[in-house]
Amino acid sequence: MTPTDPLGQDHVHPPEGRQQPMPPPGCPAHDGVTRLYVPEFAADPNAVYESLRAQGPVAPVEIAPGVPATLVTSYATALEVLRDPRNFPKDPRRWQQTIPADSPVLPMLMYRENCLFTDGELHRRLRSALNDGLSGVDSGTLRGYVERGAATLIDEFAPVGEADLLTQYGRLLPILVFDQMFNTPPHLSERLTKALGTIFEGVAADAEQANTELVLCTVELVEMRRAEPGRDIVSWLIAHPAELTQEELLSTIMLLVAAGIEPTQNLIANVLRLLLSDDRFAGGLTGGSVSVDDALVEILWTDPPMANYATTHPIHDVYLAGGVRIPGDRPVLISLAAANADPALSSARASGNRAHLAWSAGPHVCPAQSQAMTIAAVAVETLLDRLPDLELAVPVDDLTWRPGPFHRALNALPVRFPAVRPSAQTDENPGDNRWNVSPAPTSSTPQAPTSKERPGSSGSGEPRRWLNSLVRWWRGL
Ligand code: HEM
């Protein structure tokens, strides 16, 4: 049987003598190449997935200008790839030599000595340390961290009667929680929280300095915990029998921050958008008739925060079931979002089914699913409890999405509500400045709520330059 070869076609040039209709400028499929980094893709990714699916279970895409990749859109093929680490290894080092050093996707895809980019025994060793570190934080303790952080943030905007729930809540809360999980001492806590807030705000001008600050704080934290261990993830990682080297340790802590914070921010924002815009959940805000967990599971199916990722690097062409060829000269990304929407799955998507791929699958499946669910669920419950009459300040269709090939991330989530007084909790520990933080910079916090992109906001398509400088630091270790 001749293998089907959806990637062997020339997708760049139309066959001679055949006139191709010209797509409108900015179309994700302009020039025959499907570009996942343009704003038009972010505006309607499902339409793009549908047209890619017409090409077969895998399709060629560009994840940055001149950076080709293979995107898997079929659920069954996604599982086949994710469960075959021998043919689909994570190590990107051979590939990354072939793309420009300043490529905006490099920071998300380049090699670091942590479990995300390693295979086999090294991966098992690094992941065992990370799993044990994560499991040291019990769910009751984690709930407490989220509740305190949420109350602190809500107190900031509750008296105002309006807020951007992305920049003033969803984006900050996971940072505060990680601060607690790392048991950062107050003098480092404020520096770290501010640095992370600036970094995730994505304002390039401030990012370089914020990165340096993040790195310095992490190194200082590790040194402190080496000298004086505590009951926290950093101390547990240091003491783990896997005996992580200093480079592995710092890379693992940075992985926890990078892999943990941004998707959780987007999970919180995406689920709040659903709850505030969909009539099926409207009763749940006031009457409690629909569980927040149901909304979370729905988002993990329909708008997974990591939309296209779980990247692997086959070292030669691989033929999958049905003769599908995956070329060995480019990264393979799983479209977790497209696989979830695979028409072949329609019965499996029934309410409550958790077979979605939002956490990926196989040896690199997200190790922090329960922690992420707890953070997101408590974040939403606490907010709705304090501000039950919350409503979107703009029509849901006016909300815009941040461009980028990997994530499903809103630009802003403006809301209004009857103003309420702050709770008493922020005065409880006046001597401890751990929670005495203002929401990060507010260059993207609207004066009047609006969902449209603003100059200088993280939604402007700004490449994540802050990650570049972090990478430079990693290289220099
Ligand atoms: C507490 C928050 C979180 C932490 C600490 C965390 C941590 C991690 C880590 C360390 C990995 C790499 C595992 C490995 O390679 O063996 C990972 C993978 C992954 N995580 Fe999470 N994560 C968090 C939240 C989330 C959320 C909210 C999502 C999206 C719903 C998510 C989706 C994923 C996916 C898709 C992968 C697989 C990536 C790949 O194989 O390339 N994570 N996560």
Automatic annotation (TrEMBL):
Compositional bias (Low complexity): 438-450
Stored InterPro entries: Cyt_P450_B (IPR002397), Cyt_P450_sf (IPR036396)
A molecular-function term among this protein's GO annotations: oxidoreductase activity, acting on paired donors, with incorporation or reduction of molecular oxygen
Region (Disordered): 1-31, 422-464
Family the entry assigns: Belongs to the cytochrome P450 family.
UniProt name for this protein: Cytochrome P450
